[in-house]
Amino acid sequence: MMRLPWFQFHAPTSVAEAARMLAGEGPRGMLIAGGTDLLPNMKRRQQTPATLISLARVEGLKKITNGSGLTLGAGLTLTEVVGTLAVREKYRGLWQAAAQVASPHLRNMGTLGGNLCLDTRCNYYNQNEDWREAIGYCMKKEGTTCWVATASKRCLAVSSTDTAPALIALGAKVRLVSSAGERELALASLYNNDGIDYLTRKPDEILTEVVLPGAGGWKSTYWKLRRRGSFDFPLLGVAAAVRAATDGTIEEARLVLGAVSSQPFLAGKASAFLVGKKLSDEVIAEAGTLAASRAKPMDNTDLDVYWRKEVVPSFVGYALREIRGDDMRALRMRIARQQL
Amino acid sequence: MSSAKKFDVIGHARRRVDGRAKVTGQLRYADDLTLPRMLHAKLLRSPHPHALIEAIDIARARSHPGVQLVLTGRDFPVPFGIMPVSQDEYPLAPEHVRYVGDPVAAVIAQDEQAASEALKLIEVTYRALPTIATPEEALAHPETRIHDYGESGNIHRNQAFEFGDVEEALAQSDHVFEDVFFFEGSTHMPMEQHAALAASEGDGRFTLWSSTQNPHYLQRQLARVLQLPAAHIRVIACDNGGGFGGKCDPANHEMVVSKAALMLGRPVKICLTREEVFYLHRGRHPVLMKFRTGVTRDGKLTGMHLQTLLDGGGYGSHGPASTFYTGVLTPLTYELPRFKFEACRVFTNKPACGPKRGHGTPQPRFGQEVQLDKIAERLKLDPADLRLNMVTKANSLTASWLKIGSNGLAECIRQVVEGSGWRQKHGKLPEGRGVGIACSSYMCGAGVSIYWNKMPHSGVALTLDRSGQVTVFCGATEVGQGSDDVLAAIVAETLGISTKEVRCVTGDTGITPVDLGSYSSRVTIMMGNAALQAAGRARDMLVTAAAEQLEVLPASIVLSRGRVFAAGDAAKSMSFAEAVVYAETKFGTLGTVGSYTPPKPPGKFKAAGVGPSPAYSFSACVVEVEVDEHTGWINVPKVWIAHDIGRALNPLLARGQVIGGVYMGLGEALMEEQVFRRLPPKLSDALVHKIPSLLEYKSITSLDMPEVEVILVEDPDPNCPFGAKEVGQGPLLPVMPAVANAIFDAVGVRIDEVPITPEKVLRALQLKREGKNPRVGPERFPDVHYAEPVFVLPPGEGGDGNETKDHYKQAVNKVAERAVS
Ligand SMILES: Cc1cc2nc3c(=O)[nH]c(=O)nc-3n(C[C@H](O)[C@H](O)[C@H](O)COP(=O)(O)OP(=O)(O)OC[C@H]3O[C@@H](n4cnc5c(N)ncnc54)[C@H](O)[C@@H]3O)c2cc1C
Ligand code: SF4
Regarding beta strands B301-311 and B287-295, do their DSSP bridges make them parallel or antiparallel, or are they unpaired? Predict the structure, then answer.
């Protein structure tokens, strides 16, 4: 089998202790939560930290707090997130996203924090070391060229987290704690459009919680494109959150796309376009076209790249139609192969 | 086989004999085995697709802590290969590497970690050679030879056969349809990665435990490579976590651990990573095909000219057989008076292709069945009726001299048509929904062995002792298909006991009689017939002894449900164990043997041995699809499949095999592809497997699997044990074309290649909207210089099964004479 490289392992019990260790290790150290992303990467020698600092025993990271909104500890497993009633009832988009991450086994291990900090992906990079040696490596690790676009100055690896687009649409913030202090920032600003330097998180910061604002009046949804009903990372994630007046006129809207860039991002024009309108078929189609113009899929994941771009309006349409209240169950079954 | 006879075991749905052990983790796969003082091996693989090895320096690796031995190509001077005509592989490449992943060195160390570390210390100097990525390149660049044997250039095999004058038949047809299809390669994806453990027995003999489908052939190849008498080598096939053909070839790692165990006197184990399994491969050949098919106005075939081009990858493997199989089984399903096929296999710098479930036949079957759908459409005939009207007959000979025995194809078609509601659905469902039908046939065991001999293909030995214990020995290999269950069931039925009383010892060349292995759907028929004979002989002894004891005529003795008794006299009865005691008293220690040799093929021309089989199974399948016209997204809500199995020995197991076939078929139809990636040639000569992982090589999951309605058609075949035909491979075959045909019914586009992805469907839909030919598929078939065909007159034209030697010369002369006159 593929073996892990040697590493030191620490299991602190408090955030403060973990933060201190992380600061002490510097670039040699990495956090590990569920390990479902990091350990396979280590086996493939994409990441080779000398020290792993585990968050598994850190107290308080699994806290769920109901206030005006909802605060979710970063250490909650995705299965636990899916099992949280408040998520299911009030933050439907997050629930649908978390329920579609990977497979049941991986959701039992993988955490919310790990999902938000997930490494970017590329099928020139998510390969074991022998394979990468055979192509002479690439810019993201040990090489100089980006094989996806040889003229590119930056790595175009894909942001592949499912929960981030959903959470950004819901207006989530995250709390980052380091030995030097802590800060809260809008989740959208956690990400850079760069396949290598994809997070604005400082190396010594720990993501401790996700803070959701109140959901009163909001409706949200998440649609994921992938080949199969399980396992696969998103090839496109469409998250939508909409607050509408009683007559259906939209007052606020956030349409967020995932997996079509190195970061999840708000489709600003499309979101703004929706405000003041009702979700007619025409409005939905136009929003789809506007959002699609921002999608920049690359030929480094599954399925044909042009096709992936072409279907963006359809998926935006599914999301908005679901928000409008259309019965999407049959279509959901066809796309997701499960009811959500 | 009289259907009046009631069976105790046969035909009853039972939990398979190894079922409970399987799901409770009791089975021991090769990687579960450990032995005292065991060492671990790892292979260094070529990072170059095509190169010569100039030097290998192993000094640093050898002195790495924990390392016991480093082997290179120099330690293995003798090549091997499953087929006698393609002995073109070395356990470790001595000088020439032919694909990324070709093994060049091995480290044996105290653990995997140390072995992996030491691999990095081996320094290999390569000289890169030009690479061949596709068959077109292989044909265009004969000067870059991947092997120095074969037909010429990079052509490994060229085969051509003509049964009756096909051009004449086409000329006289009302219509001639010409179509080009492509079937992408795919790999087997057994859940269990290959593993092997070798241990020396101290006196120059050794045992190899391995995940293998063919311990017998492996033993022969080990003897060749290690230059040892085969009798000193014991190969034990462990329980296999699936094989599907991927464990048929003798493999590099098996040779390496055997040699290392002998050299070190310590057990040596290896377990391949998933990526390495993708490199070992031997999976489905990518095949480009061209069909020219003549039909009459009312939809009867007149003749067919089939050309195939196979992408063989870097080594021969089963290639010569695979090449034949892209043609030979084509005439089994429908009456085809004349048939010509030309097949060519080329070498490319990719992992070697070989046998995968259906071996060589899914590809042409796909083309043939999709073309039939086009023919039905053009002739305005119902595709099911078109097929029904021309199915082959039982007890007939095809134009290519294959002898068909029982034939339930018509019944299969009727059953799926009825079950699926075909008549209410085909052409009648709303836009975006459709149904497609396709059929197939497969052999029940290859009529000839891989190496030439006249010995039995399967042998069974049976012992009984006074405890009532029955042990049955056979070289056949359980790969998950249920062969142990078949063996136990046949013996149990014959002896009137339950399968629980039968212990199966299988797949061990040291103690079981030879069986050729688990391939070509041969086990139920060949092992089954051998078992029937061995058990029948044991039964005779029991009957004789019991009759004597009970003082009745032997003919009146019945063995049933663990009792041995006189028919019609309840008082005259004993337990099975008592009967064994009497028999052991009378005859001494009890043991019998049985064996099976398939009938001689009716054809007498050269290579007439490929294709003939004691019996053929038949299947028909209807697939329903939903297609989204905006995205091309494909959904399969339901599949109906009827399989002519002769008799289902264990219907539960048989259904499982059918559903498994549908599962694999849908994967190949919709997503599986063993594809490769080249980088910009100016920057790199890389040619790598695009996605060698379980995550990115897509095969369907349980959530994607539709409901499958299985119909078993039972028309016992006289050549088969209790009439049972194969079920392991046949049901896969009609699935792919049925999907393609259903997509046409749903949205009116033709996807003439697999996998059929949403992107291709959407592209075809766009062509349709633009008023162009709504088809996605290969555009042309390259010029291949096929050999002059072997010409054989079909039985229907007075042929005797021999080649007409100078047919083409005569034909040319005739034309010349005509020109002169
Ligand atoms: C086969 C497979 C399929 C998958 N499919 C999907 C999918 O469909 N969608 C998807 O989104 N993901 C998918 N994943 C990725 C992964 O399983 C999930 O994203 C999971 O949520 C990661 O969480 P984790 O706790 O296991 O992270 P880990 O592997 O423990 O960590 C991931 C990264 O985040 C960092 N990290 C973890 N926790 C914190 C924290 N609290 N603060 C700061 N940094 C932190 C780690 O240092 C590491 O760099 C898949 C993985 C596999 C193996
Ligand atoms: S996008 Fe380019 S640089 Fe980034 S991982 Fe892929 S190939 Fe490497």
Answer: antiparallel
- Could you read off the pLDDT of A288-324 as tens digits, one per residue? 999 999 999 999 999 999 999 999 999 999 999 999 9
Domain count for chain A = 1
CATH of domain B160-174+178-185+283-447+606-776: 3.30.365.10
Task: Say whether A134 and B688 touch across the interface (CB within 8 A).
Answer: yes
- The stretches of B234-382 forming alpha helices (DSSP H) are 252-264, 274-280, 319-325, 362-378
Which of 223-262 (A) contact B at CB < 8 A? 227-232
- Give the CATH number for residue A294: 3.30.390.50
Binary contact (A123, B700; C-beta < 8 A): no
β-bridge partners, B293: B177, B304
Integer Cα distance of B431 and B265 in angstroms: 69
CB-side exposure of A76: number of CA atoms within 13 Å? 22
Q: Would you state the pLDDT for residue B813? A: 79
- Backbone dihedral angles phi then psi of residue B116, each to the nearest 5 degrees: -65, -40
Residue B455: is it exposed, middle or buried by C-beta count within 10 angstroms (0-12/13-18/19+)? exposed
**Which of A307, A328, A339, A340 has the highest number of chain B CBs within 10 A, making it the mutation to test binding with B?**
A307
Tell me the per-residue pLDDT of B570-594, one tens digit each, with 9 for 90 and over.
Answer: 899 999 999 999 999 999 999 999 9
User: What strand order describes the sheet that includes A236-244?
Assistant: A218-225, A236-244, A250-258, A265-266
ipTM above 0.95, yes or no: yes
Contacts of B540 (CB under 8 A, 6+ apart): none
CATH of B33-129+190-243+247-280, one of 3.40.980.10, 3.40.630.30, 1.10.4160.10, 3.90.1170.50: 3.90.1170.50
Q: Where are the domains of chain B?
A: 2-26+455-596, 33-129+190-243+247-280, 160-174+178-185+283-447+606-776
> Is the CB of A155 inside a 6 Å radius of any atom of ligand 2?
yes
On whether the B2-26+455-596 domain is CATH 3.40.50.2020, my answer is no
- In this complex, the residue of B696, B703, B757 whose CB is nearest that of residue A337 is B703
Nearest Cα residue to A279 out of A257, A253, A311 = A253
Say if A186 falls within a structural domain. Answer: yes
pLDDT at position B4: 47
Q: Do B696 and A231 touch (CB under 8 A)?
A: no
Which of A46, A123, A131, A140 has the most ligand 2 atoms within 8 A of CB, as the residue to mutate?
A140
pTM attached to this predicted model:
0.97
Would the CB atoms of A311 and B100 count as touching at under 8 Å? no
Structure tokens at A73: 């500890």
